[in-house]
Fold this sequence. Notes:
Layout: H1 2-15, H2 23-45, H3 48-74, H4 81-85, H5 88-117, H6 124-156
Helix pairs in contact: 2-3, 3-6, 5-6
Amino acid sequence: MSATKDRTSRNRAASRPSRPFTLWREVLTAYAAPALMAGTAGVVTGQQDLAVAACTSIAGTSAVVAFLVGTWLRHGGQPRRWTTTTPRVALTAALVVTAVGAAALLGWFTAQWIPAHTPIPTPPWLERLRIDLPLSAALATTIVTLRWRSTTTASRA
Length: 157
């Protein structure tokens, strides 16, 4: 009896259409999820800088990266052929490495350039950018790419 039930639930899950990829929804989720999680962690542990960074550098980076990656993947509604034929893991890894590299360079440049070229004393949040930006970029890119790919695979089948 459990084998029949198991097969039936798999068939229902396979036949259920996935939600379409909607960019604004992905961007909103990319902002809200890390803001809530990191903000909660900052409040619970008493780390005020983490609570502030949750809504600024962490969630902001996630939203921007989700928008950029999602827009690039959609490519005006007509995805590039190689993005739909490349294995899901390889596509995700390539995009994550690219996004993390760009975010790490931006974080490093910002943390180095602002103190060197402005009379503003180095605030502690500036050092957080070296970690916040690449980490947020990695998570947002992974989630958006996998989500997009699951909807393109479902629509082609």
